[in-house]
Amino acid sequence: MATDTAPDEKVHTHEEKIERLEHTIDYLKKAIEDLQRSQDEQMQHFEGRFQKLEGMQSCSTLAKQPKEFRGTKVVMDRGANHDLHPGPIDESVLTLQYDHRSTAIWRGQEFEPLTCRRCDGAFWRLGELDSRIQCLMIQAGFYGVYKAGHIQLDHALITALVERWRQETHTFHLPVGEATVTLQDVSIMWGLPIDGEPVTGHDIARTTEEWQEMCEELLGFRPPLSAFDSGRLKLKSIEDHFEVEPLQPDAPDHVVQFFARARILQLLGGLLLPDASNNKVKLMFLPLLRDFEAAGKLSWGSAVLASLYRALCRATKSNVDGVCGPLVLLQLWAWERIPLIRPERLAPRQQPPFFVGDGDQPLPAGPYGARWDVGFKLEKVGMHVLVVYRDMLDCMKDDQFVWQPYADIITSLPDCCLSGRDIWQTVSPLICFDVVELHYPNRVLRQFGQHQGIPAECDTIKELHSVDRRGRQNTDWVQHHKQYVDMWADRHARVVCESPVDGPMDYSDPYMIWYRRITRLLIGNPANRTDSGYQGVGGVIELMAQSLQRIYYRCSDAIDQGGEVSRSDILREIQDLCKHALTGAHEDRRLTLRPDLAQPAPIAATIVGPSQVKRRRPRRGGKMGLSIGDRLAFNSADISSPYASTPSSSLAPPYHSPTHSHEVFTPDAEPYVALSASAAPEVAHEDFSSAEHLVTVGIPVESKVEPDTSLAEPVDTMNVATSDVSRHDSSSIPPVLNTTQPNILELDNMVGAIATEPSTEMFVTLNSTVEDDLIMSCLENSQRPKLKKRKAKS
Fold it and tell me: Where does the Aminotransferase-like plant mobile domain lie (predicted)?
């Protein structure tokens, strides 16, 4: 008898030893993680103190400077950008700025987009679920998430939003004010239940065998031991089992419930409440799904929002490279409220209504977030580029943020999206077992169409962010967070409302004045420029705007003070402001050259059609045409007519480079004569025969242009006496014209000289005979018959 039971006892003892070793290893892992986390916190603390000392040193240095160079309050990040300070000026609200990733970005540290972890791909590959499963999901409250569909994450967009998330207020600090994801967004976008009991309970430390038994009871199968990991189950084991045994049409109700619980677990572990491992689901949620109706009375929406807040708070640290949470909800929130980054939706496919079983009652419509389960047009919006998103948020204006995107459609939403409407504005804790985060809609009342005043001080309780399940096995979280559970129970009495408002908030509103002092306005630093890629302009725009604002009010103060202040001191101060602004915008090179302060000539008000550009194809053989006859036939009246109002050569019209167009200054459109055997592109030709035409097309007649000194020598070669030309001596003919193939560079210099300093002494008055002889000497033999034929016609 003893020999029969001995093997069983040994096997049982061996399993116990393995289980104890696993628990010991898990405990040591958690102890090491806790030790590493405490060391990181100490390092961050010392780094913050060191940065504060640096800030104090910079303040003392700045105090020794003249008064006109001092700012209101120097906190940090000073010097490199002169008077451009990203904020906050008042540190009373953002007390954790030194540990925020935006500080490292401002100092030049480059970050790749955060890795957004999710594990819901296998769920969406299942396609349309059985109508019986969908009915059970409606009872449990997860039908809206399923109908919202699969949304691809933009990691760069999530990262740009994380850079503006503040753990101190649980809001995004945008240039237009604070904004955040609220219970309203969770309810409308996903249709999750809001007004219910918190998702918490006793996290019982069960053995692996006990978890196997519970899975067999509620899921209908017994996962292998390798699929468990400290109260978590690998999602792959659920996928493999239910793929092998699909739901049959005649399956009993308890089998349908197995499938429904498995699909809900896939949503919880892969999308709504994901685990940091990216492939497991916490089994503490499984007992809550025993009764589908009871599960539907829980506040899953507040639990999901708590998980999102916790994920964003952790991701704001500069040493974090990944984020895990319901990030699809955050992306939908951003698309609804920020048109700058919103892709254009394509028309959704028309789908027939889905009916329940053999009845005639269709399933309810999906939540508002389902409208994004379509294709996108990306012609107007750039996606997946972190620097672009960061710069868009830095440049955001008041009219570029939609405070109430649901105002016009809220009455047409299904019931699941409006079930918790009474507590959308409750100032209460959000609870999900070990996770507790504070919900502060009183800081974003404009999202509810209400007046936003300066909010009271809030405390997100920093200590709560270090509380998790590691090392806390067998914890009753209801008792552990009793004070917060009681606050949630009183959620209806904690609703905050203000008077409704319509229209944007004024720039000089007391809230905006206060907000600009306590917030971080800029993330991108204009002083940090990379060798390639997009260069943000948000910081440059802010720098220029601040400088112009200071110059404006400095001039106003000088006008009011009259003779009390020296004019030279005021001008010197304004000059310094301009210098600092140009230096910060990397445009200080402009200070090395004095600009032309003359006002350009006004453009004629006459509305004319587009100029008719005459194009000619190059002749065969690649030869480029040029009308030499026109250039030689100019007399003094022809040359001076386009610039009749020019008083002197110093005010001559601009000389455009001949390399762009050899016919810019030719008044007539004549056939071209071959000048070179080299190939040449088509040359645009326009008629500039009158000064009125120049003014009409926007060319100032009296623009000041310095003469091109490089053309002096070619001009001297053109000073030929009339008497010399009349003798028909080949030596008296200009070198340009005394060749069968004129030099194109010399001819261009001649035309440039004519355009720069038109003078009657530069041209030769020729009779028709002399003109014909000169032209004939310039033409190839093959061109002479054509010219004679054309002359006979004229």
Answer: 141-516
How far, in whole angstroms, is CA 46 from its chain's centroid? 33
Statement: residue 740 has pLDDT above 80: no
Contact 183, 109 (CB under 8 A): no
Residue 32 lies in a domain: yes
From 458-472, 560-574, 726-740, the region with the lowest mean pLDDT? 726-740
- Three-state DSSP class for residue 687: coil
CA angle 445/450/456 to nearest 5° reads 45
pLDDT score for 378: 80
Query: Quick one: DSSP state of residue 82?
Result: B
Q: Is the pLDDT of residue 164 over 80?
A: yes
What CA–CA distance (Å, rounded) separates 636 from 762?
Answer: 9
- Within-domain flag for 759: no
In this structure, are residues 617 and 744 in contact, taking their beta carbons and an 8 Å threshold?
no
In this structure, the answer to whether residues 476 and 541 fall within a common structural domain is: no
Instruction: Among 592, 610, 630, give the residue marking a domain's end.
Output: 592
Of 403, 416, 299, 302, whose CA–CA distance to 368 is shortest? 416
Euclidean distance between CA atoms 627 and 51, whole angstroms: 72
Report yes or no: 118 and 274 within 8 Å, Cβ to Cβ. Answer: yes
Q: How far apart are CA 786 and CA 301, in angstroms?
A: 88
Residue 193 in domain: yes
Whether residue 399 is predicted with pLDDT greater than 50 in this model: the reply is yes
**Same domain, residue pair 574 and 478:** no
Token pair listed for 100: 């925020």
- Three-state SS across 453-472? CCCCCCCCCHHHHHCCCCCC
351-386 as b/e, with b when 16 or more CB fall inside 10 Å? eeeeeeeeeeeebbbbbbbbbbeeeeeeeeeeeebb
Q: Over range 167-190, report the average pLDDT.
A: 97
The pLDDT tens digits of the residues spanning 61-77 come to 433 443 333 333 333 33
Residue 683's closest CA among 635, 751, 729, 777?
751
The neighbouring-strand residues paired with 623 are 619
> Distance (Å, rounded) from C-alpha 353 to C-alpha 40?
54
Q: Which residue has the higher pLDDT, 769 or 86?
A: 86
- 330-361 pLDDT, tens per residue? 999 999 999 999 999 987 655 555 545 445 56
What integer pLDDT is reported at residue 748 of this predicted model? 56
Phi-psi sector, 64: left (phi>0), alpha (psi -120 to 50), beta: alpha
Kindly report the number of other CB atoms within 10 A of residue 613's CB atom: 8
180: left (phi over 0), alpha (psi -120 to 50) or beta: beta
pLDDT of residue 74: 33
Cis peptide before 88 (omega within 30 of 0): yes
Write out the residue range of the structural domain in which residue 562 sits.
17-45+536-592
Q: Residue 269: what pLDDT?
A: 95
- Cα 212 from Cα 635, distance rounded (Å): 106
The span from the CA of 242 to the CA of 85, in Å, is 57
Which contacts of 402-407 are long-range, i.e. CB under 8 A and separated by 24 or more positions? Answer: 402/336, 402/337, 402/338, 402/339, 403/179, 403/337, 403/446, 403/447, 403/449, 404/446, 404/447, 404/448, 404/449, 405/336, 405/337, 406/184, 406/188, 406/336, 406/368, 407/449
pLDDT tier at 575, thresholds 50, 70, 90: confident
At residue 619, the 3 state secondary structure works out as strand
Contacts of 579 (CB under 8 A, 6+ apart): 588, 591
What burial class does residue 66 get, using C-beta atoms within 10 Å of its C-beta: 0-12 exposed, 13-18 middle, 19+ buried?
exposed
Q: Per DSSP, which regions of 312-409 are E strands? A: 322-324, 344-345, 376-377
- What pTM does this model have? 0.67
Q: Say how many domains are in the chain.
A: 2
pLDDT cut 70: percent of the chain above it = 65
pLDDT at 153 over 80: yes
Dump pLDDT digits (tens) for 601-628.
Answer: 665 544 444 445 444 555 554 444 444 4
Tell me whether residue 582 is in a domain: yes
Task: State both tokens at 549.
Answer: 């604002």
Which of helix, strand or coil describes residue 203?
strand
State the Cα–Cα distance between residues 666 and 689, nearest whole angstrom: 8
